[in-house]
Amino acid sequence: DAGITQSPRHKVTETGTPVTLRCHQTENHRYMYWYRQDPGHGLRLIHYSYGVKDTDKGEVSDGYSVSRSKTEDFLLTLESATSSQTSVYFCAIRDSLDQPQHFGDGTRLSIL
Amino acid sequence: QQQVKQSPQSLIVQKGGIPIINCAYENTAFDYFPWYQQFPGKGPALLIAIRPDVSEKKEGRFTISFNKSAKQFSLHIMDSQPGDSATYFCAASIIGNQFYFGTGTSLTVIP
What we know:
Number of strands of chain B: 11
Helix content of chain A: under 10%
Strand content of chain B: over 45%
Number of helices of chain A: 0
Structural class of chain A: mainly beta
Order of helices and strands of chain A: EEEEEEEEEEE
Largest sheet of chain B: 6 strands, mixed
Oligomer: heterodimer
Number of strands of chain A: 11
Helix content of chain B: under 10%
Radius of gyration of chain A: 13 Å
Strand content of chain A: over 45%
Shape of chain A: globular
Shape of chain B: globular
């Protein structure tokens, strides 16, 4: 398995609270991605990073922000969580653009 | 708008059967088509991938068939086993750009 650790693995929180999810990699890969997985939608890209401090939006970025201050860590923040953000969140990494993405085991987030 | 349409949503086959999962796309610029396998509680794992310059690719019991003119590609699992029970996702991308995933197919292989 690719060296990807997502934390926490499970979280339950209340609407309106801030939430930060962490993706940590030991592969020194340049590219990192955050997806959400929902029934009937598959995986949808939230944000991605192509280097330290270099990030960009994906197709479902509203309500989310990201930061990457070190190669190994990519953080996803929900500034004020809403129930529509209840989902399973996956981090993925990629060494170069002609290589496939490798996924972590996900964070199950429930917002009540 | 779903960039990649996947069917069926679920599939049940007997052990030894050949489940087939289909995907269709519209963007003719897509040039990389991977399939991912996902077990409960785990992230998707790359299974096999194809580029549009070939019509078929085999890796073990898994085969991708690609029809460029029809803008369709499919995954065939030969001699399916109970251990193949998982959710399968197709995807498409322009190399170096965003991946677009299908909605997934839940496969159950009955012993």
